[in-house]
Amino acid sequence: MPADSFTTEPVTKLFFRYLLPSIGGTMVTSIYILADTIIIGKGIGIDAMAALNIVLPLFNIFFGTGLLFGVGGAVLMSIAKGRGDVETGHRYFSTAVILNAITSLVYMIIFIMFMEQIARFLGATDTTLPYVMEYAPYVLWGLGFFSFSTFLQTFVRNDGAPKLSMIAVSFGGILNVILDIVFVFPLKMGMAGAAIASVIGTTTTFLILILHFFSKKNGLKFRLRGFSLSFARNIFKNGFTSFLLEVTAGLVMFVFNLQLLKYVGDVGISMYGVITNSAIVVTCLCNGINQASQPIISTNHGAGLHERIQTVKRLGVRTSLIICAVPAMLGLIIPNLFTYIFLNPNAEILALSESAVRIYFTGFFVTGANIFIIGYFQSTLKPQISLLLCLSRGCVLSLLFVYVLPLFFDVAGIWASIPLAEYLTLGMGIYFLKKTKRRINT
User: Would you state the pLDDT for residue 32?
Assistant: First the structure.
């Protein structure tokens, strides 16, 4: 889509044209993990699911790296195109590709060399370690595809091809589910089969996204000489919030695992696996809304069209609140539904399930609004505010509460830590939105 379409087409029509493909793409991204979780939980067992939950922070690093350079570069590329500077947009894309490739290679070397030590550090016990070591090596060899599939989704979408991005992710996700079922059940390949299915699925997504570069609509031009250290700093600075959104989620998951081991044991990690995978679905919904609005906001920011940006902001916040209310209400009304989706639960799991889901899911009411507000400040080149909100929500407050609240409320305090962090972050976000709006008006 040409940059002038972002600045001239009616905002509401433009927003909803991008919304469905964006949500479709991010939702299917969650299938990679959800399919593994459900099939491992049902087909292999509760200990295997606990092992998967220990590995999940690694996925946050892979996807977060793709977002670091993908969103960081794509926002700056869109702003450059909004200003009519196409060549600078190409240089941002080229620099981002090189950064993503180098970082992925470094990750792969480190993780493959020290996987068992890392697994122990993440909370693997003698019970769960064999499952972790059966699953992780295959995922690590596919690390580059996980990172680049996320990276390319962002750039292809910002280059005016949201449908191709959605098709790529959907096809890869469906293939992953089919292979998961085949490898784990009839072929009895266990954790290795689930991991191989995920790698094949994400590789397929990557290959379909590559097709964009052979289409007539392609506006992404890679130039090896386009790399620039100053551009690299700008990409890192602007994309760091997206990276933190993913990586702090992994950090919180890691700390949750340790706290639950302390207060409940391995069964607590299995229950947290149910909750965190449900949260992945909600987060993907929110990311879809954020990604639908991001190229519109960035391009109009580059063109100085503030009224159009305000319209997108209103649409994004309202859509986030409405969509996220659905899973939140389901968790409050029928909490055990989610436990039965992921596990064949025993009495011990069910004893934890009802209160855990009800407490944790109250935070979902405002999760979407928080993620949209963080993305809004990122898209309008206010990375300091975006970073502050991201750190408050995803790291500082969450980690503070997950350590402090259990001292007073036992395991219920662990489940309450995320909702409390969400609501406090929303208050901060509203304050900064009002403050920046006053500046624009004056």
Answer: 65
| 30-34, 100-104, 154-158, 253-257: least confident range | 30-34
Res 163 pLDDT > 70 = yes
Inter-residue contact 6 to 83 (CB < 8 Å)? no
Residue 356 makes CB contacts below 8 A (sequence gap 6+) with 271, 275, 335, 411, 415
Contact 253, 60 (CB under 8 A): yes
Beta-carbon neighbour count of residue 359 at 10 Å?
24
**Residue pair 136/146 in contact by the 8 Å Cβ criterion:** no
Report how far apart, in Å, the C-alpha atoms of 93 and of each of 3, 97, 98, 228, 293 are.
Answer: 16, 6, 9, 11, 20
Give the helix ranges, DSSP H, for 222-305: 229-263, 266-303
Cα(138)–Cα(258) distance, integer angstroms: 25
Averaged pLDDT, 18-43: 77
Give every CB contact of residue 259 below 8 A, 6+ residues apart in sequence: 402, 403, 406, 414
Q: Is the pTM of this model over 0.90?
A: no
- Contact yes or no for 196/138 (Cβ under 8 A): yes
Give CA separation, 56 vs 38, 135, 282, 314, in Å: 14, 11, 16, 33
Residues 6+ apart with CB under 8 A from 12: 311, 315
Percent of the chain at pLDDT exceeding 70? 97
CA 381 from chain centre, in angstroms, equals: 20
**For residue 241, what are its two tokens?**
């919030």
At 417-427, the pLDDT tens digits run: 999 999 999 99
All structural domains of the chain with their residue ranges? 3-441
Is the pLDDT at 370 greater than 90? The verdict is yes
Which residues fall within 8 angstroms of residue 103, CB to CB, at 6 or more apart? 65, 68, 69, 147
Distances (CA, A) of 181 to 29, 83, 194, 303, 424: 17, 49, 8, 49, 41
Angle at 37 between CA 33 and CA 39, to 5 degrees: 120
Question: Residues 27, 281: contact at Cβ < 8 Å?
Answer: yes
Chain mean position to CA 346: 30
Query: What number is the average pLDDT over the span 142-171?
Result: 87
Looking at residue 303, its pLDDT comes to 82
If you write DSSP's letter for every residue of 101-115 in order, what string do you get? Answer: HHHHHHHHHHHHHTH
pLDDT at 441: 63
Q: For the segment 299-315, what is each residue's pLDDT rounded down to a tens digit?
A: 888 888 888 989 999 99
